[in-house]
Amino acid sequence: MFSSLIPKFRVKSIFDLSPELLMKHGISLVLTDLDNTLAPYSGQEPSDKLIKWKNELSAASIDIFIVSNTRTERAKKFSALWGVPYIDGAKKPSPDALIRAARRMNRAPGETLLIGDQIFTDVWSANRAGVLSVIVEPLKLTNVFYILRYIAELPFRAFAKKFE
Ligand SMILES: [Mg+2]
Questions:
Q1: What's the gap in Å between 36 CA and the centre of ligand 1?
Q2: Could you tell me the mean pLDDT of each successive run of 10 residues in the chain, 164 residues long?
Q3: Which phi and psi (to 5°) does residue 156 adopt?
Q4: Number of domains composing the chain
Q5: Which of 45, 67, 124, 126 can pair with 114 through a Cys bridge, CB separation 3.0 to 4.6 Å?
Q6: Rounded to the nearest whole angstrom, what is the distance from the C-alpha of residue 104 to the centroid of ligand 1?
Q7: Which CATH number goes with the domain that contains 26?
Q8: Pairing verdict, β 9-11 and 29-32
Q9: Where are the beta strands (DSSP E) in 1-99?
Q10: What pLDDT, on a 0 to 100 scale, did the predictor assign at position 161?
């Protein structure tokens, strides 16, 4: 179980996933977590920077797909504003939603990456689905629970290689 919790790669933020690097790793589909990866838990809209990043990926024929555990209207609204497909209520660490998303986009797991801010949901689901797992630094650690969880994740984060 320990090894299935180790992210393949680590980055500071989602913006470190440049089209050039993604293409170098053979990735044409980026599955992404929403909360604390794309926006803080309270964030309702994609930032200008996220819109620019999405356009750069689109120009390189790299698709984005939100896979979120949230069950609120947020994922739907956020995805519509950003212009990307989504699955909410994904039940990560189950790999099912990731596999469904890749199928919907006609991509093999080997062409697919999942980026997220949590080891015990995002990374575990990606490793079980056979897609490349990338851990990002959470955008905001707003309460004690998030901070404790982050500390518990540090040993796993330490094993991840820099995405380059
Ligand atoms: Mg998250």
A1: 5
A2: 91 97 98 96 90 98 97 92 97 98 97 98 98 97 94 96 95
A3: -75, -40
A4: 1
A5: 126
A6: 22
A7: 3.40.50.1000
A8: unpaired
A9: 9-11, 29-32, 63-67, 86-87
A10: 96
- Please tell me the pTM assigned to this model: 0.96
Closest listed residue to residue 125, CA positions, set 151, 157, 93, 88: 93
Give residue 108 CA to ligand 1 midpoint distance, Å.
24
The pair of structure tokens assigned to 63 is 């698709």
Domain that holds residue 22: 3-162
3-state secondary structure of 25: coil
Expressed in angstroms and rounded, the spacing between residue 26 Cα and the centre of ligand 1 is 24
Question: Which tens digits make up the pLDDT trace of 107-121?
Answer: 999 999 999 999 999
- Coil, strand, or helix at residue 61? coil
User: What separation in Å is there between the alpha carbon of 118 and the centre of ligand 1?
Assistant: 6
Q: How far apart are CA 8 and CA 123, in angstroms?
A: 9
Distance 97 CA to ligand 1 centre (A): 15
Q: Which helix (H) or strand (E) holds 23?
A: helix 19-24
Residue 51 to residue 57: CA distance in whole angstroms: 10
Distance CA 130, CA 42 (A): 31
The tokens for 160 are 């991840």
Task: List C-alpha distances in Å: 110 to 114, 136, 140, 154.
Answer: 11, 20, 30, 26
146, two tokens: 């998030």
